[in-house]
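Hi W.,

Here's what went into the run:
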Amino acid sequence: MKILVTGIAGFIGSNLADRLVKEGHTVVGIDDLSVGVLEQAPKEVEFHKIDIRSKDIYPLFNGVDAVFNLGCSKNYSILEVISVMQDIIGMHMVPQFKPDIPGEVQANLGNITEAGNIK
Ligand SMILES: NC(=O)c1ccc[n+]([C@@H]2O[C@H](COP(=O)([O-])OP(=O)(O)OC[C@H]3O[C@@H](n4cnc5c(N)ncnc54)[C@H](O)[C@@H]3O)[C@@H](O)[C@H]2O)c1
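Here's what came out:
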């Protein structure tokens, strides 16, 4: 499968990408590197340094079978409210693509078990 992971340079995204690559999946990664470190992601990943709130991420969904949306800021400062709002915008942007994904691909989204494995 071709799988898109946002926040791929972060803790969970990079470890998930390691697992997906080892299982033979093609992985497309997005991260703005605001927190994450690119070297944490496996070198096999097709990486794009983009903010998930940008419309520039639209073309990256072409041919993608599944999306893991892990791009999230962790700014627990006085600006926390703004930070949370930014994350909500990002969470809104990414699922927007679902209606554009062909029915066959949407069916594949059901191929992920509760444990996070690809069936
Ligand atoms: N780590 C945990 O134990 C844990 C537990 C439960 C839930 N979560 C959730 O899982 C998600 C990922 O957690 P993590 O620990 O990997 O966080 P992390 O901070 O290590 O990784 C988040 C990544 O998202 C990137 N990012 C932030 N804002 C972005 C944006 N606007 N556009 C693109 N990339 C952006 C950062 O650069 C970073 O690489 C978060 O939503 C977190 O709340 C984490």
